[in-house]
Amino acid sequence: MTTFVPFAFAVTFPLFWIAICLLLSRLSGWSSLATHYGTDTKPDGERYGSQSMGLGFSPLFMVSYIAVVNVYISETHLYLTPKFFFKAGHRPLSVPLGDIKSGLGRVLFFKVTKLEFGHAKAIKGHVFGILGEKLIEATERL
User: Fold this and answer.
1) pLDDT tens-digit profile of 62-83?
2) N or C terminus: which one in the chain shows less Cβ crowding within 10 Å?
3) CATH of 4-141, one of 2.30.29.30, 1.20.1440.120, 3.40.50.720, 3.40.50.1360
């Protein structure tokens, strides 16, 4: 019986983790974005590792991805790829910069860059800091 508990944990915890990742993908809208912007190509452009962002269908309820998204900004696209342990339900995204509307905003006490996506208007997002500044620069060039 004592060997059953570690075995049960070793099986149950990964299944629970995958279920949570799949649920967060649905709640945040990442899975909806993947239907329009999902990609299997290797990202290019300037890399911003371990970034934080929020995604959701409402500004009041967003799923926070804290330091788990690698972001690449190229001349034409924004690439979003989750870290390894968060890949379940989170296909890499390649969003054309022309499909992104960005602008400055606030979330509580923090300055953020708000995002809207052309083919998925119901999904809102925000990013923080230098990534937001670079994203505004990239979208204004177009």
Assistant:
1) 999 999 999 999 999 999 999 9
2) N
3) 2.30.29.30
